Structures are given as C-alpha cells and as structure tokens.
Amino acid sequence: MKKKIIFSSYDDSKNPYYGGGGAMAIHQVAKRLAKDFNVTVITGNYPGAVSEVVDGVFYKRISLPWLGPKIGQLVFQFYLPFYVMKE
C-alpha cells in the first residue's frame, strides 16, 4: 500500500479567480510524487469544479463554490483541518 501525501492550496490551475503559478508548482511536484505515493491536492471549490484525477494526482475541491473567491477562501480554511484529519 502506497503512503499518502496531501498538499493544500486554495489556488488551482483551473480556478477562474486565481489560477496562479503556485498551483502550477504544486502540480509539478505532486505529479512526480504520484509515481511512488497516493497524492491528493486539496483546493478551493469554484463554479463548475469537480474533484478529479490529473496526471495521477487526485484533486479534491472543498468549500462552497457559490460563495465566491473571498468568502470561499475563509470557508476553505475552516474545512481544511477537518478534511485532513478525516484522511
């Protein structure tokens, strides 16, 4: 059984509100680690987002997409510890 690695970042390369370089850097590291580990990247949720696997990395979107980018970030930070403890 592979060990699990979890990254968290509100940003996501597909996020229409942000989609910055940090998200791309996390993805590059995560996809390399996915060869030897189960890698999950927890990101914020946004309209039209779905949890998915990209390049062997599971992207889990949390928060409420209809809250918008600012309040959505606050809710993301609130949900994050609970999701990580569950995993």
What's the short version?
This protein is α/β, with parallel strands linked by helices.
Protein described:
The chain is of the alpha/beta class and 87 residues long. The protein is built from 2 helices and 4 strands; from the N terminus they run βαβββα. A 4-stranded mixed β-sheet has the order 1-2-4-3. It starts with a strand and ends with a helix. The mean pLDDT is 90.
Task: Give the % helix.
Answer: 25-40%
Q: How many β strands by DSSP?
A: 4
Shape annotation: globular
Helix/strand-derived class? Answer: alpha/beta
Radius of gyration from the CA trace? 12 Å
Most strands sheet: 4 strands, mixed
Helix count equals: 2
| Poorly predicted parts | none
Terminal CA distance: 15 Å
- Main-sheet strand order equals 1-2-4-3
Arithmetic mean pLDDT: 90
Q: Which percent band covers the strand fraction? A: 15-25%
Properties at a glance:
single chain, alpha/beta, 2 helices
List the helices and strands and how they pair.
Blueprint: E1 4-8, H1 21-33, E2 38-44, E3 52-54, E4 57-62, H2 68-86
Parallel strand pairs: 1-2, 2-4
Antiparallel strand pairs: 3-4
